[in-house]
Every structure is written in C-alpha cells, then in structure tokens.
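Posting for a labmate who doesn't have an account.
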Amino acid sequence: MPKFRAALVTSEVTFVPENYSLLVDELLAHDAVVALIVLKNSDFKLSLKALGSMVLGAKQVGRQLLLNQLAALRSRRRKRTEALSKKYLELPDVKSPHSLETFRELDLDLIINARTRFIYPKSLLEIPRLGCVNIHHGLLPDQRGTMCDLWALQAKVDSGFTVHWMNPKIDDGNIIEAHVVSKADENRKDYLDHIRRASMDEAKILKVLLDQMVEGRIPDGFPNLQAERRAHFKNPTPSEIKIMRAEGICL
C-alpha cells in the first residue's frame, strides 16, 4: 500500500507566538507529512508593518512579528525539517509555473494550508489526490474574512478556527471541523494567548484528521452555507485598534 503523502504549507513569518512552531513541529513529526513548504513573506515592508502595529497600539503583535522575522533568519524550521529527513522548500508564491511544478513533483495526497494569505489557484487545488484543506481563523460559516478570531474576542462571542476543504472561493468549501478556543463567557482579552492556544488545538485536530485519512477515512465535511447577513471581517483600522484597547483587549 503506497504511503500517504501530505505537505504542510505556511508563511515564512507569522505573528503567532514562536512563529507557529507549536503547530509546525507537531505536524512535521507525523509520518504522513513528507514536506514543509514555506511561502516567503519576510521583507523590509513586513518590518515596517510590525513597527507600525506597535505605534498604533498593537505592541505585542508588532513585537512578536519582529521576533519571528529574526527567528526565520536562523533557519530553525529548515533544521527541524531536515533533522526529520523530510523536504524543506521555500517558494515565493503558489501560482508560478515553477511553484506548481514543485508541488506536482511531491506526488501529494493532501496539502494543508496554515496561516498564509495566498489565494490558491484552481491549478494548485487540483494537484493533490484528495485536495487541499485550510485552517481558517474564525468559526465558519458565520465568521469570514481576516482576523475573525480577534473580532470575535472583541464582540465577546465564541472565537476559534475552522478546518475546511478548499475550493477556488475564499473561506469556502465543506467544513470538516469548527473548533471553539475561547468561549464567549470566558471574557478572554489577550489575543496572542488566544492564538497560541489555538495553534496547539489546530495541531491536535489535524493529527487526528491525518490519522483518519491514512486509514482511508476521508471526511466529506458539511456544507459551508453562507447566510444572507454573514459577517465578513478585515484587518482592524487604527481607530478600531484604539477602541479594542480601550475595551481592554491586549494586542
């Protein structure tokens, strides 16, 4: 029986504590994950964005972004991946002929997309035998867009993430699991603490999912229905950050 082959795709730099290593390390240790593909996003503009976040009041998020940039320079992920005798690849995008050919050469059953803001073209979605799954940081089908988990904390409603099948539409595709990390009645206000805990839960759920797929149990998921008045979030503006901080949210 051929070995199940999955690849984890993530950004070179994230704003998750420890640069998302709590998820990346756990999934790399899974036998089914044969490669880590890192999408390059570290540049001078990202440093400016981090500094700008700090000036606007999101001091923890901006500082973490800078720390993660420095960590990326030390190639910790590459060393960790190669120590496990797995492939480490860096790509500038997910659309170029070179990038698509790189994915094809891996002969994958599944791609797991974790904290990238790259939109996968149909040509990439069709490469893995089973398709691609995404970790969306909001509770679908109601919370769509970017930084949904932060907006949920601000609104004092359940906040978490969703693992779903990917299709050419954003935040679409059948839902495999929607998981609450911070309940509405817990009144949690530390955003970095929330996403750190979320990354641990994401790793656990995806490891179980990989185990199931290795055994041939492929979940169809359930429809990701879009309500007429669904929420669609964007990155908070400076004025919105100011309001969040005034409400006690730690950024």
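Reply:
Got it, the structure tokens are right above this. The mean pLDDT is 90.
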